[in-house]
Amino acid sequence: MKNFVLAGNPNCGKTTLFNSLTGSTAYVGNWPGVTVDKKEGIYKKFDEPINIMDLPGIYSLSPYTPEEVVARNYIINENVDCIINIVDVTNLERNLYLTTQLMEIDVPIVIALNMMDVFRKNGSDINIDKLSQRIGLPIVEISALKEENIDELMKVAIEESKHDRKGVTIFQGTNLRHLVKDCTTAFKGIGVANPLFHAIKLIELDELETKDHPQLVGIVKAFKETYSDETFGNDLEAVVADSRYKYITENLSVLKQSGNSIVNKDNKSDRIDNVLTNKWAGIPIFLLIMFLIFHLTFSTNFLFLGGLFKNVKPSFEGSAFEGLLWTSDGINSIGVIFTNLVTSITNLLSDLVSEAFSSSPSWVSGLVVNGILGGVFSVLSFLPQILCLFLLFSILEDSGYMSRIAFILDKIFRKFGLSGRAFMPMIMGFGCSVPAMINTRTLADEKERTVTIRVIPFFSCGAKLPILTAIAGGIMSITNIKNADIITYSMYIIGVITAIVSVLLMRNTTMKGDIPPFIMELPSYHIPQFKSLMIHLWDKAKHFIKKAFSVILASTIIVWVLTHFSFDYQFLSDQNMDQSILASIGKLLQPLFTPLGFGSQLSSYGWVFVVAAITGLIAKENVVATFGSLAACIAGTMIDVEATGGDVIAVKAMISATNISVGGLLAFIVFNMTTIPCIASVATAKAETLKGKFKWTLLFWLITSYIVSSMVYLIYEFHFTILIFEAIIALIVIAIIIHNKKEKEKIK
Ligand code: GDP
Ligand code: MG
């Protein structure tokens, strides 16, 4: 079977094209050894089926990112019959930069000029024949999104794949041409395939190339000594890159004509940017958008219409939708409505199951109804809100807004010692820390990377959301705060502030380093594609549900068993849970948490908080799952709380059983948010951070969470303690300033 690859910049439409070419045959895996997606599928439109490989999105074939290395090795070393180079015509210069490198390889190439639909709509035009002639490669204009000209593209690619092709280069007309020729001859001499490609990489003194062919480095070194370019001196890598860009702007991109200004897409993007990335309004708008997202997801007083709603409400009273769509506080947001739906379904199931088990021994029904269903259902009931939040974030990302934010924040980030690039992984942290930590590979400075990875867990992930929502609900039930979204939003903000302060501290003490410049091309705004949003969403849901029925299910069973057996293997009823194995462990550790408000000051069952936090080290969903299964048991032993599973009710049961204060509850949220993350994130952090720093990273999480949550508790309960904390912080800052000054003097 013939093997074609799709190569192109990130966001040029590769995945869109891949999906329409391969349909349901696609197979997603991982490249061996690195966490880069590997996608393969089969194109079956014509007689001969063709294997299609979606390479990772790349800007060049340098050895700097795992994506670049993967793509380069695949094209050079595997049997590729044709490269389909996707070029986003609306970003022509940048995209052709990769093309000028691909064309040096001895493999047939077709250029798929993508996004022609938007380009044409703007009234822009491009001289395809001239472009094709100057690059020496066939070009097919397509729209991956509208599936226009796709089969035509494949026809041309199949035709090309029948003939051999020799690489060509744009260095013919430059003063590097003799060196290129010499190096190419040398590679031919030692019988290396793709001599032209290797020759130019050698001239760049590319890391992989010089390692593979040290005997040839001399040719370039000798040239380098005599050669000096007026702009770049003898930095050959920069000279090569510059020549490519010069060639593109002088010979290729001039063939493009921008459309009239009224419908020009880039102008439209610019006009949106005038508002969204405005110097003054940019950040307030960003915070407002974030708040709206939380409001849509969590609020039980949508748009603060509660007061207005009270006047008309009597006419709705008692209708079937009461509770689902609104409560006495106001109208529910979308997130809450879906949560209510799911909760009523799971409650119904719980009731059915508990009836079915009513005649079986008490430990069986206890394990099944309270232990398993109580735990798993209390986690599942948060799925709607997690998906809602995730969907809204994906829309921001797909539309191109997130890159703008990275751009606006770059200036501020620099003050803290990070580059704007660190923003994307942080935002991804709101979804899941694992991919977020992996995404830090875009950061060039190793210390900056380690610092970013350490603070990523403070950007509260989807799995921590249940803790927030459940406890916010509990807090609402004992205070007169009526807006869950305000509690969750402020908890997220505390996480972000903790991250900022930690970054500042680390970059000024143990993790000093330069910040590399931040260069980034802003993509034009896109209207997010419904299909791709849904695919993301389904991936997320699948992952969450899988986790609920594997890791979390297993943990709830273990927790239930450990709380219903004593050290001498006696089965304990719910009333005697206090004498269980887990209770003893929890009680042992409990005093440690007294400064955090959920330690020894709590009455009986206070150990459940400690136990829940510990189970959270496996997966953060476990915290609420543990509440779910244990609170159902506790509620059964008390008279004043309704004994059902579910989320908020479990927390209410815990509150009345332990008399925990609001400050303690808030501190508990913050502790779980900032302490050692789940096992998967810990393993990722270990793999991705600087060697030898891992134990410090663990210690950093423990200490930070302890300090921040005790601050939250103490300041909330005893306002005067804010003065003490302020004094301590001032002392630390002064100490650092003095220390840094001394160091500078030493260097002088
Ligand atoms: P990848 O990063 O190269 O895999 O790019 P994607 O396939 O994810 O596409 C990036 C964005 O460009 C998505 O929002 C697509 O909907 C959009 N897109 C892709 N091809 C076209 C096209 O031909 N026309 C238009 N208007 N948008 C496109
Ligand atoms: Mg893609």
List the helices and strands and how they pair.
Blueprint: E1 2-8, H1 14-22, E2 27-30, E3 37-43, E4 50-54, H2 66-77, E5 82-88, H3 92-102, E6 109-114, H4 116-121, E7 125-126, H5 128-135, E8 139-141, H6 150-161, H7 177-189, H8 195-203, H9 207-212, H10 217-226, H11 236-252, E9 256-257, H12 265-276, H13 282-298, H14 306-312, E10 326-327, E11 330-331, H15 334-356, H16 362-380, H17 383-399, H18 401-416, H19 423-429, H20 433-439, H21 446-455, H22 465-478, H23 484-508, H24 530-564, H25 581-589, H26 607-615, H27 621-637, H28 648-658, H29 662-674, H30 679-688, H31 694-717, H32 721-747
Parallel strand pairs: 1-4, 1-5, 5-6, 6-8
Antiparallel strand pairs: 2-3, 3-4, 7-9, 10-11
Bound molecules: guanosine-5'-diphosphate (GDP) and magnesium ion.
Instruction: Report helical residue fraction.
Output: 55-70%
Q: What strand line-up does the widest sheet have?
A: 2-3-4-1-5-6-8
Which ligands accompany this protein? guanosine-5'-diphosphate, magnesium ion
**Averaged pLDDT:** 84
Q: Could you tell me how far the N terminus lies from the C terminus, measured between alpha carbons in angstroms? A: 66 Å
Number of helices: 32
Strand content: 5-15%
Structural class: alpha/beta
What's the Cα radius of gyration? 30 Å
Total E-strand runs: 11
Name the overall outline.
globular
Low-confidence stretches: 260-265, 639-646
